[in-house]
């Protein structure tokens, strides 16, 4: 059976002629809120709070899988956000760039992976350590590009 999709007349069209965003997708019955559809979806407005301080980082590795951050994901990082205990941060430790959860307690600092196959890394005063920014969002593709 061939399936077709008819888009509502009030859909906002993208350059390809398909809607870029119409409304939230609900599982179940149609929402009465469909009468109040959003306009075009701008990912910069949605994901970036401070454009001059924001950068994107492509992820490689599996140490943060438990946090929903996987290889080939795109991490949105804001340098203007102050890192706090349990923030996911982009940091440089002894010249190596890493993404980990920041752990701070009783004057101690550690970088915590979100994968039990990896061990925490305690940061001592003898090490060269700098937090570059705090991860604010992750863009995760459900299907790989061909």
Question: Explain this structure to me?
Answer:
With 146 residues, this protein is mostly beta strands. The protein is built from one helix and nine strands; from the N terminus they run ββαβββββββ. The chain has one helix at residues 43-47, and strands at 12-13, 19-21, 54-58, 74-78, 88-93, 96-105, 108-112, 121-123, 129-139. The strands form two sheets. A seven-stranded antiparallel β-sheet has the order 3-4-9-5-6-7-8, with no helix packed on it. A two-stranded antiparallel ribbon has the order 1-2. A hairpin with a 5-residue loop joins β1 and β2. The chain starts with 11 loop residues before the first strand and ends in a 7-residue tail after the last strand.
Structure characteristics:
single chain; 146 residues; mainly beta; two-stranded antiparallel sheet; disordered N terminus
How would you concisely characterize the structure shown here?
This protein has 146 residues and is mainly beta. It has one helix at 43-47, and strands at 12-13, 19-21, 54-58, 74-78, 88-93, 96-105, 108-112, 121-123, 129-139. Strand 5 and strand 6 (96-105) form a beta hairpin.
């Amino acid at each position: 059976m061939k399936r077709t999709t008819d888009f509502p007349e009030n859909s906002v069209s993208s350059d390809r002629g398909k809607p870029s965003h119409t409304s939230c997708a609900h599982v179940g019955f149609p929402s009465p809120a469909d009468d109040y559809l959003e306009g075009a979806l701008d990912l910069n407005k949605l994901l970036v709070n401070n454009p001059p301080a924001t950068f994107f980082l492509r992820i490689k590795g599996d140490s943060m899988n438990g946090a929903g951050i996987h290889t080939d994901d795109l991490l949105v990082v804001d340098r203007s956000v102050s890192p706090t205990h349990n923030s996911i941060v982009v940091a440089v430790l002894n010249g190596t760039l890493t993404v980990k959860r920041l752990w701070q307690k009783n004057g101690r600092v550690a970088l915590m992976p979100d994968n039990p196959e990896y061990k925490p890394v305690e940061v001592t005063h003898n090490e060269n350590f700098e937090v570059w920014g705090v991860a604010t969002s992750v863009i995760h593709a459900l299907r790989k590009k061909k």
